[in-house]
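Supplementary Text 2. Reproducibility record for the structural model of the 221-residue chain.

All settings were left at their defaults, and a single model was retained for analysis rather than an ensemble. We include the record here because the model underlies the residue-level annotations in Supplementary Table 4.
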Amino acid sequence: MKAVCLLSGGMDSSTLAYVAKDMGYRIHALHLNYGQRTEKKELQSAAAVAKALSAEEFIPLDLGYFKAFGRSSLTDPAIDVDVFDEKRPELPNTYVPFRNANLLSIATSFAESRGADAVFIGVQALDYSGYPDCRPAFIQAFQQVMDLGTADGTHIDLLTPFIGLTKTDILRKGLDLGVPYELTWSCYQNEEKACGVCGSCHFRQKAFAEVGLSDPIPYEE
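Retained model, structure tokens:
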């Protein structure tokens, strides 16, 4: 079996690639740069994780149009990255408009070209920042898009094993599988030392604290 894994280099996508490999899939790793603040660090991390899990191939692609569109603190340096606030009623400004639909479209093209059986994406709908393109309904709808938009006789499963899990659940799975978390990167705004205050850092640190371990990546004091 072959699977395309969207591999950002972060905690969730790296764990997901190890889960897919454990399920018996040969991994074709796809890394998509979209002008995010930490794209150099994320690319470095994704490449290292792909090598560690002996992926069949690792393909990085650049999607510069997201930076041209802006409207997200991840792609527009003029917008400060929101500090995590669990009481915030609106979406954090780290939301990149309709990003996952773009990433999944490219992953589907890649999967069809390789005769792959599945596309894996590490979305979750529990402790996340409320992004609309992480909801189960969106994933179900995109499976229909994949079924309708690929050649007759093609079926590619869109698999989201983490959608009902917490970050802590994901971490426990990864620890069992030997995921090298020291190679991964989650911070939204820094590439040398993680900021520790953005939403991604918050959920990552919380997960490590809940399993009683120290996060192996460096953080600002």
